[in-house]
Amino acid sequence: MSRRHDPLAMKLSSADDRVRLSKWLPPQAGVVPKIRIGHRWVNVLWALPLIFLFLVMGVAVAQALREVPGVQDFIERYPGIPSSAVAVTDGFPAWLRLLHFLNLFFLAFIVRAGVQILADHPRLYWKRDCTPGTEWFRFQTAVPTGRIWTAKDDSVTLPAWFGIPGIRHSIGLARWWHFSITLLWMINGVVFYVVLFASGQWLRLVPTTWEVIPSAASTALQYLSLTFPVEHSWTRYNSLQQIIYFITVFIAAPTSILTGLMQSPAISNRLGWFGRALNRQRARSIHFIALWWFLIFIFIHVTLVFITGARANLNMMFAGLNDGSWRGIVIFVPAMALLALTWCLASPLTIRHARVVQRIGAFMARPFNSMTQWWDPSSQLKEKDISPHFWLNGTLPQSAEFDSLVKNNFADYRLRIDGLVAKATELSYAELKTMPKQEQITTHFCIQGWSGVAKWGGIPMRHILDLVKPTVDARYAVFYSLADGGEGGRYYDVHSLSNMRHELTILAYEMNGAPLSVLHGAPLRLRCENELGFKMVKWIAAIEFVHDFADLGAGQGGYNEDHEFYGYRAPI
Ligand SMILES: Nc1nc2c(c(=O)[nH]1)N[C@H]1C(S)=C(S)[C@@H](COP(=O)(O)O)O[C@H]1N2
Ligand SMILES: [Mo]
Predict the structure, then answer these.
(1) Can you give the residue ranges of every domain in the chain?
(2) What is the three-class DSSP state of 444?
(3) 507: which strand partners?
(4) 0.90 exceeded by pTM
(5) For a substitution probing ligand 1, which of 517, 536, 559, 565 has the most ligand atoms within 8 Å of its CB?
(6) Scanning 149, 331, 420, 538, which has the fewest C-beta atoms within 10 Å of its C-beta?
């Protein structure tokens, strides 16, 4: 070590640059996804026979309807493409074909990593408080009672071939995939929008006449009756295709991006009424519903591509040809092979080169992270918003030292503040309580997906800075915990001084008007509202001001950064 650190620095552990499955959280199976209807939990697999039944009955009804003269007149009047719709003239140009493929390619990895993220907290809610039992969807059993059940305990393993990286509680790595590929997908999307409108190809996707509505109804009836409408895809889509594609490109995609961003603590905590209305759990739930839009869309779209003349359709979209040759398939097959190969390599490579994925991911996520510079969290909530339930995370301190602190109500507790400061100091629990106190009602955003609102009371960090006076060399504050992390070695995390100067950064000793409980981090825990929960160290033992954190632990800026490949900056 280049210089002497706080004594607790000795207790930090190093970490591997790859995932070691022997040390990782052991696998835990989830359950078949269930949806709550009232008080009943219904297995989603019931949807399959129900959909089948409805489709079969729908076909029968549609076929009967097509015998009715009035319906026949209607279909004749609205065969599928409104007479006033303008056709494009040049089929599918190369740029469109390429962006179409890239879109599929990126989406595959976004979806895999996205579901991996969901598996870290396999429950969806509409309300911000995430109270067990209020979820509307889950692939986990009811939260066990009568024992401590942390959010980490709640995470489940996905089928290994599906998730990225396919192991339990791998949200740190999954997020890098999700964000990096989303950035590429968004660039792809922006280019698509620009060229679409510049080229006139937008006429395919954007309805320009109200006639699309009866036309779409007519087309739907034709599909359902199994006598499909006549195809003109080379230059024009039928109205049903047009509406569905329009929703996918211009509604589902932007909705996914918006609801993704609204899950960020920095963005949501900034946006006042909007952050309250589209709270993190609503955003997560809508994000998930948008996922299902894409999945169902892809399923039906690909099915129809293959049953309405696969060769001709693949020629159009992969070769840009409107003929019966085999050229489309010759491009399509290697394109899918590339997707399959990348699909198979993604997880093993991520597990093996986790640190590289973390580094590339942090670089790729920079545009999103720097967005949050403008979103300085400031909005607070009201007493009535306080959550009835607040999930737990972390491993409790397990030492005789801590037990005796608890026994004496922290009378012997000392917070040590040292490192690059003019005045190193130790503050007793009683002294801390005489310092200026600040209360704030804020939302906690755990990286795993849950959130909760609480009123926190404690000492603003800016007063601590005034007291100890960090030197000009000090750039970071290291928080050492009294507790170890899940894999052994002391829990710690590092923050920039600008986080420390933030008006909502406090050392909390109260939660919801009562002394902070041991489970939630007594005697002291950090609140830093512009970051995710894991950055808020509980059971704080010491704060050290440093110039650099490369020589602490595995050098990534915190316990989860070292061991679980999380990002050092976590405002999203
Ligand atoms: N010492 C320590 N602090 C910790 C953790 C931990 O494991 N150890 N977990 C973090 C995580 S991931 C979260 S979400 C919050 C949870 O705080 P809560 O248990 O009060 O809800 O604490 C953070 N602080
Ligand atoms: Mo967390």
Answers:
(1) 7-18+376-563, 34-373
(2) strand
(3) 459, 526
(4) yes
(5) 536
(6) 149
